[in-house]
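User: What would this chain look like folded?
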Amino acid sequence: MSPRLLGRMLAAAAVIPLAIATAAPPASAATSGWRVTQTVAGSFALDRVTATSAGNAWVTGESCGNPCGPTSLLAAHWAGTGWQAIAPPSGFSTSVGSTVTAASSPSSAWVFANQGSNVDTTIALRWNGTAWTGRHDFPAWSDMNAAVVIGKADAWAFGQIISPFAPYVAHYNGTIGESLPHPNPSGTSQGVILKYGP
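Assistant: Here's the prediction, encoded as structure tokens.
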């Protein structure tokens, strides 16, 4: 066999495994789609979820243990590899109803928890990446149902005062949470989009 023909055969043999390796699908393709990341034991309800990236997500709700007892705040953070339960701060009430959560980064997240046994109110908790800070108590009979966090010093919560009924909007500007007057023109309670600012 001539050296030239032998060289061509060796070159062809080297190309075959390379072509097979190139044609093989990436490992991630086999794991795409829905999959179970965690199973939570006990009785609970998940209300809201928010995510800013593949490595930062929050879910909040209520948990009453097993067997079920008084409801407490359920909060968990996803950092890209698994869910970590985040316990509420010391002294937080065990009569928690609905919750709302919003975040802008791993070090800037908010939870708004409706709680109370006789008079409902909403309590806001701010997460700074390592601990809960900046607790804020909203007025009696307040109920928040939506929130958005733009940055560490810019967060909004939207809801209503249940009794007597009135829309309620709160803004966090980095130091305090201040309530803002909400325009409620007569006859425009539905289908109206409002803008705040200039």
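Confidence is low (pLDDT under 50) at residues 1-29. If you want, I can go into more detail on any region.
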